[in-house]
């Protein structure tokens, strides 16, 4: 069970790991970068995830198994702290940076401290999770329709799971799927389903599809899950496996039997994946680890299916140290380029935005699109990116004019 104090302790611990000697320098003029919005605390602060684009041409993605490359007229996101009650906000943002607070999380039964990416349905209702709050203070799944928030499920903190840190995916029937980082039958996290009610206003029903065991089958999933075309679910755990550095798993639709597709060894393959998986049109999956690899700062990897088996390939070894690598899902554009963020590597130990461009012979070219200085431009991008109108948008945890993080724009 996760108490509010435990959530605060984890936030503090992560901040302590990330906090390095801050080096501030002028922004590099060669980069096409701008700060779109500064969080003040009162309007939210410390966003642990990125944005979704909603409007003309995209609903933001009700199934994140592909990517978050969408066209939209506005963005939606959450912050983990701040707002009227200090427990975070759900906000909308225009591309020019005008913010509207849609919901202030109140703590208690309402939920507190959202970390995961939002999704939308065809009616533009928003769905997400909070890591804390709810009836047992171990997190919630919520829906926001217009400006009205409804808690769909409060985790009890036991066998049903606790502390969901990632967002959700939705199937064609409107059912929701996600992970909890704690709880489940063994306390090591779970994969759950929330079945939509058959009548409007009815009760959502939660069931645990898989509880991670004592370690060999993985533990502590931080990323969410993704579907393939057959309805199987795929994801990562940040710990467990045969070496203790996390796994990539498949849950077979129907039986929800687990297949381990890769055990991370903390070698060239990397270790401790916090990000989930995204897929391309050919059914290949892409993901990232936070540390290890040839450069020490984690890896970007690809899983390729063939004849019922999967081949694990390293796309790129990121330079860095410790857990300085990519925390959240990658994004894929129409040309097959991958984009992501690293949270505390780069010249100023404040994070980067990067592109990986495929070339002949299975090679990929790494392009560092922006290096954060840790000052007014933001510090530590623990963020998904969204590609909207040929520009990338993301968030930083800290930095900016008020120290509470920013929304930024980068032109690839």
Summary of the model, kept short:
The chain is mainly beta and 412 residues long. The protein has one helix spanning 4-18, and strands at 33-38, 52-54, 74-79, 89-93, 99-104, 119-120, 126-130, 140-145, 148-154, 169-170, 176-180, 190-195, 205-211, 226-227, 233-237, 247-251, 258-263, 278-279, 285-288, 296-306, 309-319, 331-332, 338-342, 352-358, 364-371, 386-388, 391-395, 406-410.
Topology, please?
Layout: H1 4-18, E1 33-38, E2 52-54, E3 74-79, E4 89-93, E5 99-104, E6 119-120, E7 126-130, E8 140-145, E9 148-154, E10 169-170, E11 176-180, E12 190-195, E13 205-211, E14 226-227, E15 233-237, E16 247-251, E17 258-263, E18 278-279, E19 285-288, E20 296-306, E21 309-319, E22 331-332, E23 338-342, E24 352-358, E25 364-371, E26 386-388, E27 391-395, E28 406-410
What report would you give on this structure?
The chain is mainly β. The protein has one domain (4-410): TolB, C-terminal domain (Neuraminidase). Helices cover 4% and strands 36% of the residues. It is built from one helix and 28 strands. The chain has one helix at residues 4-18, and strands at 33-38, 52-54, 74-79, 89-93, 99-104, 119-120, 126-130, 140-145, 148-154, 169-170, 176-180, 190-195, 205-211, 226-227, 233-237, 247-251, 258-263, 278-279, 285-288, 296-306, 309-319, 331-332, 338-342, 352-358, 364-371, 386-388, 391-395, 406-410. A four-stranded antiparallel sheet has the order 1-28-27-26, with no helix packed on it. β19 and β20 (296-306) form a beta hairpin. The longest helix has 15 residues, at 4-18.
């Amino acid at each position: 069970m996760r108490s509010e104090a435990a959530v605060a302790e984890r936030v503090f611990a992560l901040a302590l790991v990330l906090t390095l000697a801050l080096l501030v320098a002028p922004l590099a003029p060669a980069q096409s970068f701008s700060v779109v919005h500064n969080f003040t605390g009162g309007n939210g602060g410390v966003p642990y995830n990125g944005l979704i684009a909603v409007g003309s041409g995209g609903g933001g993605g009700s199934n994140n198994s592909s990517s978050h490359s969408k066209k939209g007229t506005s963005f939606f996101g959450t912050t983990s702290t701040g707002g009227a009650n200090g427990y975070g906000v759900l906000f909308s943002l225009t591309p020019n940076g005008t913010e509207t607070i849609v919901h202030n999380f109140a703590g208690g039964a309402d939920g507190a401290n959202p970390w995961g990416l939002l999704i939308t349905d065809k009616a533009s209702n928003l769905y997400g999770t909070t890591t804390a709050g709810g009836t047992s203070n171990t997190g919630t799944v919520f829906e926001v329709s217009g400006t009205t928030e409804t808690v769909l499920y409060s985790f009890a903190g036991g066998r049903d799971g606790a502390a969901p840190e990632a967002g959700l995916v939705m199937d064609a029937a409107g059912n929701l799927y996600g992970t909890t980082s704690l709880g489940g039958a063994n306390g090591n996290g779970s994969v759950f389903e929330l079945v939509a009610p058959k009548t409007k206003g009815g009760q959502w029903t939660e069931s645990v599809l898989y509880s991670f065991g004592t370690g060999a089958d993985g533990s502590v999933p931080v990323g969410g899950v993704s579907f393939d075309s057959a309805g199987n679910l795929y994801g990562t755990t940040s710990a467990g496996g045969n070496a203790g550095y996390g796994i990539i798993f498949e849950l077979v639709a129907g039986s929800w039997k687990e297949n381990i597709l890769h055990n991370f060894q903390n070698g060239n393959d990397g270790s401790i994946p916090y990000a989930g998986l995204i897929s391309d049109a050919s059914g290949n999956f892409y993901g990232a680890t936070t540390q290890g690899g040839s450069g020490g700062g984690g890896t970007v990897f690809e899983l390729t299916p063939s004849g019922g088996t999967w081949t694990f390939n390293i796309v790129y070894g990121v330079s860095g140290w410790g857990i300085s690598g990519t925390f959240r899902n990658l994004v894929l554009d129409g040309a097959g380029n991958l984009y992501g963020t690293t949270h505390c590597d780069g010249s100023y130990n404040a994070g980067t935005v990067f592109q990986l461009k495929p070339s002949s012979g299975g090679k990929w070219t790494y392009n560092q699109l922006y290096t954060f200085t840790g000052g007014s431009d933001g510090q530590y991008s623990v963020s998904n990116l969204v590609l909207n109108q040929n520009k990338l948008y993301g968030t930083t945890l800290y930095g900016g004019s008020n120290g509470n993080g920013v929304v930024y724009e980068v032109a690839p």
